[in-house]
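Backbone-to-sequence.
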C-alpha cells in the first residue's frame, strides 16, 4: 500500500513539474514563409497573449528577442489579463523591447477591452512609442520593403474591416494584425498576404493528432487553433501565446513567442 502511495505521489509531482515547465519556460517558434512582393527578407517577432505572466523570465525573453534582431515586433493583444491591476511588469517588458526596435505595433485583445485599466495600459504603450492600430492601417518601410500594416479591433465587423483596409495597395506586402483569428476571415478580399493572430492559446490543452480541445469563439475541437493555415489568397498564422487565462495549465503546448521570417522570392 505504501509503495503504491509513493508511486502516485511521484506521478503527481512529475505532472506538476511538467505543467510548470509548460506555463513558464517559453520557446521560440520559428516560421519561414516565402513571398514575391518583398525585395528583402522580413524578420518578424510576434508576441501575443502574455496575460501579464510573471512566471516568464523577463531577462531571458529580452535577450532571446535581441538575438533574433527583428525588423519589427507585433503585439497581437492580451498583453495584460482582464484581471491585471498592476500592469507595470508587462509595460516594462515592452519598454525593453523598444531598445531592440522602435518598430512595435499593437492591436487590442479582448482582455485589454475587458480590463478597467485597459485604456490606461494602451495609453502608456502609446506614450513610450508603440504604434496602436484600431481598425486602421499604416504604410511603412521595413527592411526596405513597402509594407501595409492593418490593425483590427477584436470586435470587427464588415464595415469596420472595409474601413481598416481602405487605401491599401495590393502590390505591397499587406499584414493584418488581429487578436481573433476567425472573426475577420469572412471579410477577406484577397489583398491580405499574412494574418497574424492569437487568442486561442493553442487550446492550452492539446491532444496528439486531434490538437486543441477547445478555443474561445470556436468551441470544441476548433479548426483554427494554432500554427499556419493556408487560405485562398493569404496565410493565417496563430501564435499560441506566452500566458494563460482561466486556469494556469498547458499540456503539449508550451508557452511561446514566434519568429516569422518572410523570405523574398526575388533574386
Amino acid at each position: 500500500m505504501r509503495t503504491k502511495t509513493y508511486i502516485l505521489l511521484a506521478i503527481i509531482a512529475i505532472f506538476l513539474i511538467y505543467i510548470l515547465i509548460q506555463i513558464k519556460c517559453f520557446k521560440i517558434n520559428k516560421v519561414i514563409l516565402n513571398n514575391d512582393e518583398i525585395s528583402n527578407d522580413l524578420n518578424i517577432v510576434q508576441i501575443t497573449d502574455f496575460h501579464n505572466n510573471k512566471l516568464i523570465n523577463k531577462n531571458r525573453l529580452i535577450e532571446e528577442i535581441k538575438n533574433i534582431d527583428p525588423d519589427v515586433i507585433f503585439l497581437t493583444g492580451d498583453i495584460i489579463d482582464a484581471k491585471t491591476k498592476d500592469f507595470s511588469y508587462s509595460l516594462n517588458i515592452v519598454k525593453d523591447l523598444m531598445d531592440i526596435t522602435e518598430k512595435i505595433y499593437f492591436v487590442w485583445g479582448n482582455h485589454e477591452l475587458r480590463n478597467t485599466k485597459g485604456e490606461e495600459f494602451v495609453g502608456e504603450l502609446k506614450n513610450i512609442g508603440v504604434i496602436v492600430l484600431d481598425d486602421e492601417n499604416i504604410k511603412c518601410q521595413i527592411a526596405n520593403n513597402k509594407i501595409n500594416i492593418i490593425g483590427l479591433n477584436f470586435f470587427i465587423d464588415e464595415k469596420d474591416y472595409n474601413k481598416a483596409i481602405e487605401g491599401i495597395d495590393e502590390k505591397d506586402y499587406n499584414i493584418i494584425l488581429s487578436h481573433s483569428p476567425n472573426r475577420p476571415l469572412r471579410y477577406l478580399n484577397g489583398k491580405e498576404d499574412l494574418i497574424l493572430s492569437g487568442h486561442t492559446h493553442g487550446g492550452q490543452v492539446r491532444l496528439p493528432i486531434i490538437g486543441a480541445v477547445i478555443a474561445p469563439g470556436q468551441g470544441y475541437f476548433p479548426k483554427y487553433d494554432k500554427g499556419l493555415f493556408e487560405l485562398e489568397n493569404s496565410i493565417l498564422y496563430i501564435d499560441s501565446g506566452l500566458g494563460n487565462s482561466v486556469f494556469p495549465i498547458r499540456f503539449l503546448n508550451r508557452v511561446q513567442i514566434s519568429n516569422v521570417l518572410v523570405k523574398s522570392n526575388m533574386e
